[in-house]
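User: I'm putting together a small comparison set for a docking exercise, and I want a reference complex before I start. The sequence is below, and the ligand is FE2/S2 (inorganic) cluster. Could you produce the 3D structure with the ligand included, as structure tokens?
Assistant: Of course. I'll restate your input first, then give the structure tokens for the complex.
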Amino acid sequence: MAIHDAGKADELAIGERKLLKLNGEKILLFRLESGYHAVQANCTHLMMPLKKGKLLDGKTLQCPIHRAEFDVASGEVIKWANFPPGIQALNIVRKEKCLKTYAVSVEDGQLSVEV
Ligand code: FES
């Protein structure tokens, strides 16, 4: 584990995100009402990029491909892949899996992520 600089805290408005590559890992850093949160940048279903996923209700990230939904703060699965109809057949071999999360800290307006 190492602490990596992740830029200035005020660079992101609430509801915004940015993609980081730290220590070889792609990470999405979000600023939500609840604070800053970092999760793996690829969906655990089929590893597609989550960067352009919709942020639902200000805290849930929806994968743009098969619409799995994840809690950004905890990485937990809210809803597993459910689009298009029939995707459930694939889910027999692609079981629900949380997103990996990373600890984010803010000090003197500077963000750090532990990777
Ligand atoms: S790749 Fe994200 S739900 Fe399938």
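The mean pLDDT is 97. The chain has one helix and eleven strands.
User: Thanks, that's exactly what I needed.
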